[in-house]
Write a structure and sequence with these properties.
Number of domains: 1
Helix content: 25-40%
CATH topology: Spore Coat Polysaccharide Biosynthesis Protein SpsA, Chain A
Number of helices: 8
Largest sheet: 9 strands, mixed
CATH architecture: Alpha-Beta Complex
Strand content: 15-25%
Structural class: alpha/beta
CATH class: Alpha Beta
Distance between the termini: 53 Å
CATH superfamily: Spore Coat Polysaccharide Biosynthesis Protein SpsA, Chain A
Shape: globular
Number of strands: 9
Order of helices and strands: EHEHEHEEEEEHHEHHH
C-alpha cells in the first residue's frame, strides 16, 4: 500500500523526547504513513537505545544540518507521501489518530489542520485552536498537527533557513501570495499534545521580534501599524505573566 502521509521528525540529542514521539507513532496504524527522522548527527547516535528508534523509522538521515528548517526541508525532499506532517521531537499524537481520512484522496489538495493541547510535563496548559484568520498577528495554526500537501512545498517553496519562526514565515509568506486562507480546512478535533521546550519557548522575546520582522516583510503596509501594536501587547503580556509567576511560585 502506498503511504499517503509522510510524518517528518527533526531530532538532535534529545532521546527522551524522541522516545515519546516514537511511542505515539507506534500507537497509530502504520499502513497510512511513513515516518522519517532527520537527525542532526546526535552525539550518542551509536548507542543502542537511540539507534533502535532510528531503525524503527521508515527512513532516517543522521548528518549535520543548519537548524530545524534545514532538517524539515531534508525530510520534505525525502518524503513520498501526498501530505506531509512535521511532528516535532516530543510531540505526541492521540492514539489511533492517523487513519484513512476522507480527505486523503481529495481531487483538490488542501491544508488540513487540527487543534492541539499545549503541555508542560504532564500538565495541560491551554488549548491550541486553529484560527487561520489570526495569522497576521502570529502563528495561530498548530503546524505540527497540520497536514500540508507535498505539492504546496513544490509550488510555494520550502522553509526559510532562519533560526526562529520558520513555520510562521512559511505560512505568512504564502498567506496573500498564494491565497492560503482559502486552502486551509479546519478540523474540530484534537490531534495531539505539544510540549513546551521548543526554540520559540526558550527565546520568547526574540521570537516575538522575529515575528514582527516577518509581518513587516510579507504583509501589506496597511497591517504594519496593527502588527506593531500587537507586538507591544504580546510582549507586555508575556512579561507580566512571567512576573506574576515569580510572585506566585
Amino acid at each position: 500500500m502506498d503511504k499517503l502521509i509522510s510524518i517528518v521528525t527533526a531530532h538532535i540529542n534529545d532521546y527522551e523526547r524522541l522516545k515519546k514521539t516514537r511511542d505515539s507513532i507506534n500507537s497509530q496504524n502504520r499502513d497510512f504513513f511513513e515516518w522519517i527522522i532527520i537527525d542532526g548527527e546526535s552525539k550518542k547516535i551509536r548507542e543502542y537505545k537511540l539507534k533502535k528508534i532510528l531503525d524503527e523509522s521508515d527512513f532516517f538521515i543522521s548528518e549535520k544540518d543548519k537548524g530545524i528548517a534545514d532538517a524539515w526541508n531534508k525530510g520534505i525532499k525525502a518524503s513520498k507521501g501526498k501530505y506531509i506532517l512535521l511532528l516535532n521531537c516530543g510531540d505526541t499524537l492521540m492514539p489511533d489518530f492517523i487513519k484513512n481520512f476522507q480527505w486523503l484522496r481529495e481531487a483538490r489538495p488542501m491544508i488540513h489542520s487540527y487543534h492541539a493541547v499545549l503541555t508542560s510535563g504532564q500538565k495541560p496548559l491551554r488549548f491550541l485552536r486553529v484560527i487561520p484568520k489570526k495569522l497576521i498577528f502570529g502563528m495561530s495554526i498548530p503546524h505540527n498537527f497540520t497536514f500540508v500537501p507535498a505539492k504546496f512545498y513544490r509550488d510555494f517553496g520550502l522553509y526559510s533557513e532562519i533560526k526562529l519562526s520558520m513555520d510562521y514565515e512559511w505560512f505568512l509568506r504564502n498567506l496573500f501570495k498564494n491565497d492560503l486562507l482559502n486552502q486551509i480546512e479546519i478540523h474540530n478535533e484534537i490531534a495531539g499534545f505539544y510540549p513546551l521546550g521548543g526554540l520559540s519557548d526558550k527565546f520568547a522575546y526574540q521570537s516575538f521580534l522575529k515575528n514582527l520582522k516577518i509581518q513587516i516583510k510579507h504583509l501589506p503596509i496597511f497591517y504594519s501599524f496593527l502588527c506593531s501594536l500587537n507586538f507591544l501587547f504580546v510582549v507586555s503580556k508575556h512579561f507580566l505573566v512571567n512576573l506574576l509567576n515569580k510572585f506566585i511560585y
